[in-house]
Here is the input.
Amino acid sequence: MAQTDLPAPPPLAEPNLAAAIRIHAQQRPTATALVEIGADGRQSWTWAEFEQAVTERASALVQLGLVAGHRVVVQARPTLDAVATWFGALRAGVVAVPVNPGKTPHELTRVVEHCGARVLIGESDLDLPGVRIVALTELAGHAGDAPIASPQDPEAVAAVIYTSGTSGNPKGAMLSHRALLAHCTGAFRRGLARREATVLCGMPLFHVFGLNAVLGAGVFAGSTMVLVEGIPDDLGEILKAEQITHLPLIPSVLYRLTLAPDLADSCRSLQTVTSGAAPLPAALASHWLRQTGIPVHQGYGLTEAAPGVTNTLGTDWLGSNHVGRALPGVEIRIGDGSEPTEPGEVMIRGNNLFSGYWPDGSEGPADDGWFATGDVGYLMGEDLFLVDRVREVIIVSGFNVYPAEIEEVLEQHPDVVAAAVVGQADEHTGERVVAFVTGDSVEPSAVLAFASARLARYKMPAELLVIKAMPRTASGKIRKNLLRDLLDRTDEEDF
Here is the structure.
């Protein structure tokens, strides 16, 4: 059954997602806005406290000498302080650059230098000329110390979110205030975010899924957001204790949850479960439904779309490659639009699209607004089905891993002559990274140790195989399809 999209909420006073916090604080100051469950126990803020914290962080950023357009790298875990800093940056008009706390010094340095950041917020011992390093805790207590002028231009860049390029070089997608708000509006109208909801925010806040599809949309709607990091052992107990109604996650977390004791009891309050960032196996979706009685809906998006494109909420389940219908405000076509039912590259258009890659806006939407996603799919009526990816991206626990980046690192090892990286299906993480290398005296453990100092953990090869020679085409291109054939293949597990 198709769902009728809900009406859009009243427009904000200014084109800034942080303005939603002020509205909620005025309308219901004592209602709970944020809950953090971490090593120090349970902490929470009301909307009034949240608004004050955001104002403090915005003022602190201004006091650091930052003005609209300056970049600030935020390396933080999902905490109250981190959330307030993100929205404080939006309110102050500085460009937030969220990064993975697990980045190696080498990776972090590349991002800081590439975006030209003046400030790094987080815990780091890097010594970068012209870059000030500030702890999250230093940003509290600055309310009223500096005037704050929120940007009034919806096209001003709000964030630069990095996805490694196919060449291995960092590529920062520039998301404007317009793009962030467009996604949140579409999610609200589709019913993915509701004022009365209590949402588990367990996705990393350096990934656009957690940052805007979950946190941003929830705050925009006025939901209560419950922050947790990773997959706590007591996640089932948290769902029950906090009476979570909306559970957005990735397939690997869904799988881990199916192993939890008393799962059905823990899920009694759940109303909506959505999966994103990686393909959802049909067997896993069916297994979850049998255990809980609650359907899991699948979404499709990308960093460049801030991130939402489609969702199956409100539609019938039509198989694992069915990703639903376009969110309100998003248009989809296949190729040039002449043969929508035949597989072709998925093209999208909408106000949620990015403004190109940092710093010059390259590779952004065309003049007519259409953007090529790099994914292959087809349409049956309004429903989108994904077939494959044009690019050889590997998705590990919801994170994009680009083979070229890993191959570049492996080939820097003096014993490695050539390297090729492919993905292999994995029931726990969706896919895992497998590397093939050639060389006369390669010691796999030494090469992996070399790579671990240069790659984030989720990018690390789960397996490294030494072969005599790379299979190549006549033009010299490595035939990765033959390498995949060398890997043991198993049928999709029957849960």
Notes: Confidence is low (pLDDT under 50) at residues 489-495. The two ends are 27 Å apart (CA to CA). The first helix runs from residue 19 to 27.
